[in-house]
Amino acid sequence: MTMKRVKLLAHEEIVQAALQELQGNIAAILDSIVAIQQIPAPTFAEAERASYMRAQFEALGLQDVEEDSLHNVYGRFPAASSAERPPVVVSAHLDTVFPAGTALPARRNGRFLYGPGIGDNATGLAGLLALARTLTTYHFSLPADVWLVANVGEEGLGDLCGMRAVVKRFGQQARYIIVEGGLYGQISHQAIGVRRFRIEIEAPGGHSWGNFGNASAVHELGKIIAQITSLSVPQNPKTTYNVGVIEGGTSINTIAQTASMLLDLRSEAPEALAELETAVREIVAQANETAKHKHTGVRVTMEQIGNRPAGSIPRQSPLVKMAVAALHQVGCSRVSYIASSTDANIPLSQGIPAVCIGLAESGNAHRLDEYLDVTHLPNGLAQLLLLTLAAARYATS
Ligand SMILES: [Zn+2]
After folding, report:
1. I want to staple 33 with a disulfide (CB 3.0 to 4.6 A). Which of 126, 162, 163, 242 is the partner?
2. pLDDT at 389 over 50
3. C-alpha 97 – ligand 1 centre gap (Å)
4. C-alpha angle with apex 243: 240 to 249, nearest 5 degrees?
């Protein structure tokens, strides 16, 4: 049913014309990807890129364009008359993993576009703009509002703060389409759970020679990391840990007084994630116990700094089927379903229909040598348009 509806939709004259124009605009869309990629947008410092997106939303004729206090940017493509159905929210994250001051060169080589953040998520944001342009140019008549959103806080320690605000605003009734630049052909309707912690160690420390024997925060940190590394985690459901950042110490000849690590735990299954967290908490409790017992003066604290809740909607739900149909329609026969941690976690964890889709293929995400393979971009954009139209017209549950 869904398949057939999307197919019928794709053959409407106006949709055909819109799809053709999208394909004809690829050169301009590539320019737009690079223009966005050039604007720094570290998590918690997305303002500059947000105002660029806001200006673009306004120039494209979206309505009710606004920026909230977090720098989420919203623009509405209005329903034909008064909206008969809850809105469709199409959102792409603004932020990148690259800290302020990172050089952001971009270059093209054949079908590859290179640049930090080029796929993740300059391409997703440029996709939003291409979608907005198509909707306004062809005056699509839809029974639901389509809200285009450029949201903050997806990467790093953002903890999906932007999407939390977006879902709060549009609520349970809306349908959410999350756009990532890479990941073409992949549909995520299963959100993996992520818990993040800062583990901090305090120790007496002192002079490396004169106070030898005093406990060191750095050495204690090393012991705890070694214990975490020796934890066994299930392969199925996939469950992982990573100490991504360590900090601490004063100088080479000082026994460290403080040290800390950032720890990221993930699992496809909430129970396995809870078990892993318990195991880490036990390691920390044990370290404190030993310190107390031996009077070393070491103190270990563990603070949760991130919680991306797990959740999913069934593969048979209308929105997922529409996403599959849209991909098939643009000629992608190999659709894969992935479990991932994206902005879709927020709606999915509340049982609200959401999918995360991609626009092209990319590589080396989160690295300076990130690249986008533009081959599938025309199809990826066509898929986004079809899915948005289908979700606005047909989504009933
Ligand atoms: Zn991303």
Report:
1. 126
2. yes
3. 9
4. 165
